[in-house]
Amino acid sequence: MIRINLLPHRETKRRERRKQFYVTAGLMVALGATIGLAGHLVMQGRIDHQTSRNKLLQTEIKALDKQLTEIQDLRAKIDALIARKEVIETLQRDRAQPVYLFNGLIAQMPEGIQLHTLRQQGTRIVLTGRAQSNARVSHLMRSFEEGSTMADPRLIEIKSVSEDKRRLSAFTLNVGLVRPQHDDDEAQLVAKGAR
Question: Domain 95-194: what homologous superfamily?
Answer without folding.
Answer: General secretion pathway protein M, EpsM (3.30.1360.100)
